[in-house]
Specification:
The protein is an alpha+beta fold and 157 residues long. It is built from two helices and nine strands; from the N terminus they run ααβββββββββ. It folds into two domains: 29 residues; 116 residues, Immunoglobulin-like, CATH 2.60.40.770. The strands form two sheets. Strands 2, 4, 5, 6, 8 and 9 form a six-stranded mixed beta sheet that branches. It has a three-stranded antiparallel beta sheet with strand order 1-3-7, with no helix packed on it. It starts with 7 loop residues before the first helix and ends with a strand.
Length: 157
């Protein structure tokens, strides 16, 4: 069965209105969620330079732990200005058969490494719930320069 030709343009107009409404709803949703991500999730990497930190080789030892146990997080850093201040861990993962992302980053105090141009940071971490964690780390200097981001995986059973 064919529709009358005169009703076809009306149907197309209705479909286009629905598409515009969906796009508007998606845009509003995204703009609403953006502030919830937190400022640390939105920080961009600073352009390379002498006072900009570079980090590499993120490791967890051991990389599989039981709930309540401690793991040693370590990574290598280089920074010409020797003013390392803090790091931030962004957590994503799978727990109880669900994919999740933490809305706030976990701060890591790195003031003990202030004055060093290069070295290896070692920080103990403890987890209180099961899951596979996909952790992303970046560091910030006293001047506010952000490092590159590095990722690692930790399993808590």
């Amino acid at each position: 069965m064919h529709r009358p030709v005169s009703r076809l343009p009306e149907r197309i107009i209705m479909i286009l209105r629905e598409v515009r409404n969906v796009r508007a709803c998606v845009l509003i949703l995204l703009l609403g969620l953006l502030p919830a991500c937190g400022p640390s999730a939105l920080r961009l990497e600073t352009a390379p330079g002498a006072s900009v930190p570079r980090i590499a080789n993120l490791r967890f030892d051991p990389d599989v732990i039981k709930v309540g146990e401690t793991t040693q997080m370590s990574f290598y850093f280089e920074i010409g200005s020797a003013d390392l201040q803090e790091g931030f861990l962004l957590e994503r993962g799978i727990s109880q058969f669900q994919l999740y992302q933490s809305l706030q980053s976990m701060p890591v105090d790195l003031r003990g490494y202030d004055g060093q141009v290069a070295g290896t940071v070692e920080v103990p971490l403890r987890w209180s719930s099961e899951g596979v964690r996909l952790l992303e780390l970046y560091v910030v200097t006293k001047r506010g320069n952000n490092s590159n981001r590095i990722r690692g995986t930790l399993t808590v059973r």
